[in-house]
Please model this.
Amino acid sequence: MTEDSTDDSTAMQAGFDALIAGDERVEPRDWMPEGYRKTLIRQIAQHAHSEIIGMQPEGNWITRAPSLRRKAILMAKVQDEAGHGLYLYSAAETLGIDRSELLDLLHAGRQKYSSIFNYPTLTWADMGAIGWLVDGAAIVNQVPICRCSYGPYARAMVRICKEESFHQRQGFEILWTLSHGSPAQRAMAQDAVNRYWWPSLMMFGPPDTGDGASPSGHTAQSMAWGIKRFSNDELRQRFVDMTVPQAEALGLSLPDPEIRWNEERGSYDFGEIDFTELFEVVKGNGPCNAERMAHKVKAHEDGAWVREAAAAYAAKRESAVA
Ligand code: FAQ
Model:
């Protein structure tokens, strides 16, 4: 390396450091360290894949929604999730990676998606529990990403968070209706909440200080880069504090006898999370991992003709212009 190029890279690093220190946005045209770019690609791709795979558990109930109104709302919600996936793939592409490459990595099991979408949706009440708890957790996690240091990711999150708020509200309303319905409907709502509570807490990721074998390894660096604004445990606590009073309003209980208000801390205590379950699900051993991936790969293969037709059409238009 020549002296000039060393000077250049020191100046570029200093420019990046100044943007981060000043809490300004890094844009695609700006120089960025390779680790920053890779971390963003990993997180944004995982986020995009989650939105797309996340269409499956709810898509499962579109044909069985209990009324036309519920069906229309659920279809709109599932379409919103597709839209979120597309904004996020576009945000990832600004980092110099192609969407098709990201999909290949997902299909080969080399990129992840959120653990929560590997649980089955057994009853209509699960649509309520997903909206209320899963979208609720997603909002708590994603609102701070609107202030992420990387511009395209932060801007994509603004609209996504607005839509997730509507999703959370519709889930709450489904559960409210069921919990004020017949004893069987109320029992269905309670069962859904019992099954989705702990997996929703796991969405926030591993604990900040684990047992040495399983802590949240990326948090410190991601916080220093302004990608993450809070740690996994901080956001998890925020979610518990927001959700406990909402469960009371619903008249449903949360399946944790250790939840109680802690006057000193000004927040709720809650029981220990079984993180071995999270790690098993992330490794591919959850109840629906194989089914979700098989469905995703098949949908991708079945859609090959659409991609081929679009590429042929674009090539024809290009040659006509030339
Ligand atoms: N599932 O060091 P950390 C939604 C992995 S969208 C699977 O803490 P990081 C909307 C992690 O990747 C839901 N893997 O990592 C919707 C890493 O593995 P790696 C998705 C997980 O990145 C609603 C390792 O563990 N939201 O729900 C999980 O700093 C309804 C160590 O972890 C986002 O993606 C997990 N739960 O923090 C759609 C939000 N947790 O890559 C449809 C953006 C951790 O080293 C229906 N992402 N891992 O092999 C984030 O905020 C972060 O990436 C975290 C993880 C907080 C998820």
